[in-house]
Amino acid sequence: MRINKYLATHKYASRREADKLIEAGRVYINDIPAVLGSIVKNGDTVEVKGELKTYRYFAYNKPRGIITHSPQGDERSIEDILPIQGVFPLGRLDKDSYGLIILTDDGRITDALLNPNSGHEKEYEVATLDKLPKGFKKNLEKGVDIGEYVTKPCHVEITGKRSFSITLTEGKKHQIRRMCGAFGAGVTELKRVRVLNIEIGSLKEGAHRPIQEKELKVFLESLGV
After folding, report:
1. ∠ CA 79-99-121 to the nearest 5 degrees?
2. How far apart, in whole angstroms, are the C-alpha atoms of residue 169 and residue 154?
């Protein structure tokens, strides 16, 4: 296994950050300085000298009308309005949706959280234009054909004649809107309220708070870090 992949797999750093550690002469294989492209074999001893980077994690309530990233034209992204420098959003929320986004500078956890095979929970509150049709909860929970793809089983709680909460373990593009659309229920409001154990709580739109202590420990342990 290449040394940068080894370091990323063992959660020392992302591959890009691992390359920087190697170039800085801080990585050793069997007491010999590693170079870019070095191979780690079974039984080898790998050591990273010096302090590892301290990462930052934030819960952020993305406002409506803001693009997660890569804005076009006169659109604004999270980066344009965020007072924190050097962090990036994990995952996306479309322009018309709002709610919880995890912000971090820890590239190690990107795949662990977003990989569709990881099965990590994300919870949303949804309001619809029309009344929810009969059998809506059952039909959503068993999986919905949204066009060449059938969604995985999920958990739904009906909270009103035109509202419900849904917990997914995947995240296809516009998935909830497409799932509702399959039953003629147009979405008027979509808010993400939880990612794993991180909850949005009373966080106002556009506001952020640090994720730390026990909350952070549980979050990282869920991701295998």
Report:
1. 110
2. 7
Q: What is the pLDDT of residues 15-29, one digit of tens each?
A: 888 998 999 999 999
> What is the secondary structure of 37-68 as a DSSP string?
T-B--TT--EEE-SPPPPP-EEEEEEPTT-BS
| Assigned CATH class of 3-48 | alpha beta
The full set of domain ranges for the chain reads 3-48, 57-115+197-222, 122-195
Q: Sort strands 88-90 and 155-160 into parallel, antiparallel or unpaired.
A: unpaired
Residue 107: the pLDDT is 87
The reported pTM is 0.83
The span from the CA of 5 to the CA of 11, in Å, is 10
Could you give the residue numbers annotated as active site?
94
Q: For residue 161, give Cα distances in angstroms to 59, 78, 192.
A: 30, 33, 20
**Looking at the domain covering 57-115+197-222, what would its CATH class be?**
alpha beta
Query: 122-195 belongs to which CATH class?
Result: alpha beta
